[in-house]
């Protein structure tokens, strides 16, 4: 881990001595376009990862190499950057992790902001996958599901006050559609 930190520090130091941040962004975007996502990550990390756009690009890069937890971490920091697509990407990350209920939540939130056919398709796939996940992998109680939707609703409501009622009603609809009422034992 220390080697990675030292090499990243040296890479960033040598880059910043020779080029400006916009040039690092150009190089990172070029690496991403050429599907060299690990290089793109190294370059984006040389920039301020607290910047929403940098965080968004880091999220996209981590998603492309299959590191969905890291992608989620950076997508969360990118709040406010193209919200419908950011929420869609969060849904995709949860879907790839097999967390279909959270994927449904984020796909619906994305659709509340902007209608999109890809999002609708992914929503349908996630909804179709929910029963398999519940009955073959783990059991989810109504309380656990309700706690999650309450927490997620408050997070989403804080980020989009104008759509407060719309998002709250969508989360209620998700709860009704998923039909999780109690813990089932075989």
Briefly characterize the structure.
By secondary structure, the protein is mainly alpha-helical. The protein has ten helices and no strands.
Give a written overview of the molecule.
This protein has helices spanning 2-18, 21-33, 37-45, 52-64, 68-77, 83-97, 100-113, 117-136, 142-159, 164-178. The protein has 186 residues and is mainly α. It has two domains: 1-71, Serine Threonine Protein Phosphatase 5, Tetratricopeptide repeat (Alpha Horseshoe), CATH 1.25.40; 82-186, Serine Threonine Protein Phosphatase 5, Tetratricopeptide repeat, CATH 1.25.40. Helix 7 packs antiparallel against helix 8 (117-136) and helix 9 packs antiparallel against helix 10 (164-178). The chain is elongated and about 50 Å long. The N and C termini lie far apart (44 Å).
The major pleated sheet works out as: none
The H-and-E topology, N to C, reads as: HHHHHHHHHH
How many domain units? 2
The shape is elongated
Radius of gyration: 19 Å
Q: How many DSSP-defined strands?
A: 0
Would you state the CATH class of the largest domain?
Mainly Alpha
- Please report the number of helical segments: 10
CATH architecture of the largest domain: Alpha Horseshoe
> Oligomer, anyone?
single chain
Q: Percent helix among the residues?
A: over 70%
């Amino acid at each position: 881990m220390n080697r990675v930190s030292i090499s990243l520090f040296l890479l960033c130091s040598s880059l910043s001595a020779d080029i400006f941040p916009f040039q690092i962004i150009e190089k990172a975007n070029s690496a991403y376009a050429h599907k060299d996502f690990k290089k793109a990550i190294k370059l984006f990390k040389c920039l301020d990862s607290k910047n929403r756009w940098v965080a968004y690009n880091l999220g996209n890069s981590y998603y492309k190499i299959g590191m969905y937890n890291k992608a989620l971490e950076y997508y969360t920091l990118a709040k406010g950057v193209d919200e419908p697509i950011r929420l869609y990407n969060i849904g995709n990350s949860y879907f790839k992790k097999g967390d279909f209920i959270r994927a449904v939540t984020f796909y619906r939130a994305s659709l509340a902001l902007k209608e999109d056919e890809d999002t609708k398709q992914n929503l349908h796939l996630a909804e179709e996958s929910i029963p398999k996940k519940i009955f073959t992998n783990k059991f989810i109680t109504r309380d656990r599901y309700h706690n999650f939707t309450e927490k997620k609703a408050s997070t989403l409501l804080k980020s989009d006050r104008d759509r407060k009622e719309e998002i709250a009603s969508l989360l209620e609809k998700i709860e009704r559609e998923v039909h999780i009422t109690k813990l089932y034992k075989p």
